[in-house]
Amino acid sequence: MADKTLITEIGEWLVDQALSDPDIVTMFETACRKLHGAGVPLARARLSWPTLHPLFQAETVLWRQGHETTLEQFRHQNERTEAYLASPMHFMFEHNIPIIRRNLDGPNRLVDFPILDELIEQNMTDYLTILTGFGRRGDFGAAGGILVAWASDRSGGFSDDDVAALQKIQRRIAVACRTAIQSRIAGNIVETYLGRHAGRQVLDGAIKRGDGQETQAVVWYSDLRDSTALGDTMAADDYFDLLNDYYECTAGPAINHGGEVLDFIGDAVLAIFPYPTENEFAGAAAAATRALRQAHTLREELNTRRQDNGRVPISFGVGLNTGKVMFGNIGVQERLTFSVIGPTVNEVARIETLTRSAGTSALVTGKIAASEPDAWASTGTHKLAGVAQEIELFAPQPKEVRQAGDSPDDKDEIRMPVLN
Asked: Residue 272's domain spans which residues?
């Protein structure tokens, strides 16, 4: 039987959690352990909630006595799965039922959901699912909420006092979870729209115009070739698909290798690989180069599929520059953006524009090329618009094999070399 004094103490602890910035996995794990210690015969508990994330629709935390607590994220799907349609969660949503109780052994045993068969195999004897909404009247609408599935393996399952304790505690868990979930969603949003580093700075309070810092960085600028003509001749849906494929080829690798994508400027991608000290330059340059190699590999693979499906192949150029940049908030008081500015950024956009006339898919400055000298060949000095001094630029060492989609006469694109 649950100890009522300890249950009250757990409730107060959860209120304290709600007033802090709790990690939802650690908090739920600790709450389950405390409930078990207070005499509630918990063997398993699953916390679920909807989220706002570009990849994931919902998240769950699974706690099992004697096992590691795990977080699972469920991707957006166009259609509901059979498992979901046969779940207690779907049944509760469809019929507006806030609580389900099922005895899994004894004369009152009831097994009417597939998940219950799995729980019986795990020796569970009782199952209690409670839905708590965050809406004005506790509904589970646009405001969201939590669903907790509690299970026991004790003979006879939960007592009436145990069920009352879990119902009481769930409301406190919901309050603490609401704080944690909103914090996670805020982090998801700012990272999605601003990038991880910029998003963290904004959440930490850098929200005034002019807030920022100076840093050194390898700056990436890529631009889609022939975008104006493509936009004029392609159906809107096809053009949006092409743009998203292009971003997967360029912004995706930059992020994968530790870069920070700061802006999508029309069909251009602006990203940085910061290196606060000169000792860290080699690592930033190597990361940017690996991202560049992956971008061109992905383009070749993608273009093969696009052409097999009768779709227009993708072509783009990439420029890499390095130097000091100002990283922070710019704009007007009512509408800011977190981005980088400075000569290094202005130059890299002009460097990318030269890739077509230089007959290559990428151009980098001398300092970056020097970090892997065997991978790059000088294309001579070039005049950048608005820059007084000419600058030497380097292209990938050429290969005989052209990228997918090039005609024998098209020398505009050269496949990236395999860089060691």
From this structure: 207-396
Q: Determine the Cα angle at 267 with ends 218 and 326, to 5°.
A: 35
Q: What is the pLDDT of residue 137?
A: 52
Partners of 126 in beta bridges: 103, 152
Q: What are the residue ranges in the chain where pLDDT is below 70? A: 1, 78-79, 135-143, 190-212, 328-331, 333-339, 398-420
- Residues 238 and 109 occupy one common structural domain: no
pLDDT at 402: 31
Same domain membership, residue 164 and residue 77: yes
**Greatest alpha-carbon span in the chain:** 89
Q: What is the DSSP letter of 183?
A: H
Amino acid found at 312: V
Give the position of tokens 């991608």.
269
- Classified as helix, coil or strand, 282 is helix
State whether 166 and 189 are in the same domain.
yes
Both structure tokens of 28: 């739920």
Same domain? For 306 and 367 the reply is yes
Q: What is the pLDDT of residue 184?
A: 83
Taking the mean position of all CA atoms in its chain, how far away is CA 411?
A: 37
Specify the CATH number for the domain of residue 136. 3.30.450.40
Q: What is the pLDDT of residues 44-93, one digit of tens each?
A: 999 999 888 777 888 999 999 999 999 998 887 766 788 888 999 989 98
SS3 401: coil
Beta pairing partners, 318: 222, 362
Q: 4-18 vs 24-37: helix axis angle to the nearest 10?
A: 170
Q: Which of 106, 105, 98 is nearest to 119 (CA)?
A: 105
The residues with which 220 forms a beta bridge, in sequence order, are 271, 320
Amino acid at 285: A
- Helices and strands, number each (H, E), in the chain: 12, 14
Nearest to 382 by CA among 359, 358, 361: 358
